[in-house]
Amino acid sequence: MSGISSIGFGSSAIQNALTGIDRGIAGVNQDAAIVASNGLAAGGSGDAVTNALIDAQQQLLSVEASAKALSITDQALGSLLDVKA
Q: Cα torsion at 46, 51, 54, 60 (round to 10°)?
């Protein structure tokens, strides 16, 4: 193997980080739908809204962690490419 293809960890780490970001965003969208539907419904459950808001905060932290992992992977790959060059 030569070039970037010999750096095997990079593509899987990037894919894992992007998957984490996608899942977090999907979770926030689902939580937003719960909040919106319960806010519009007469007599909606406050517990459902509270749980959705708490989960949305957890999803935000997950997205931030995945973005940080993506940044670290990018920096590591840049360093490896500098060393290899």
A: -120
The radius of gyration of the chain from alpha carbons, rounded to an integer in Å, stands at 19
Contact status, residue 65 vs residue 19, Cβ threshold 8 Å: no
User: Tens digit of pLDDT for each residue in 4-15?
Assistant: 444 455 678 889
Q: How far apart are CA 45 and CA 13, in angstroms?
A: 40
Asked if residue 24 lies in contact with residue 60, where contact means CB atoms within 8 angstroms, the answer is yes
Tell me which residue of 30, 29, 15, 27 sits closest to 66, measured CA to CA. 15
pLDDT digits (tens, 9 = 90+) for 9-41: 567 888 999 999 999 999 999 999 999 988 666
Domain-by-domain residue ranges, the chain?
11-84
Whether the Cβ atoms of residue 85 and residue 32 lie closer than 8 Å to each other: no
